Give the backbone structure.
Amino acid sequence: MQGPPTSAPPAPVPPGSKPPGPAPGTTPPGTPAQLTLGPPVRAQAADRWCEKVTLAFTNTGTKPATSGTVTFSTHIIGALGIDWATITTTQPLPAPIPGGTAKTQTYTVCVESWRVPLGMHVETQKATATWS
């Protein structure tokens, strides 16, 4: 018994020529939003339990990122440099971020003041994002 007929593989593209693209007068399908985040750039804030964190968001897709959240991982550092805890907080994504563009946003990231006694400080070392 024979299986279903198989289709032939696509013909190879001759060297020096381009593979076939979309038909003339049509638009290729868009690609979903794909964000990459630059490293967090930190600056001191007025309170020791807060800091200003600047992030660059780059959308390498063709469709916009229309909503989402940014999650910050903030470390509480003691006077001797010991990392005592990591607290995560979330804030809204600076949406919309159009496809093929970049956007920069500065956030004030804070933890509860009682978590940072005198002599201690915070360091936001990581940021991640989710989007749609």
About this structure: The beta strands are 35-37, 41-44, 50-59, 68-77, 83-92, 102-110, 121-131. The chain has one domain: 35-131.
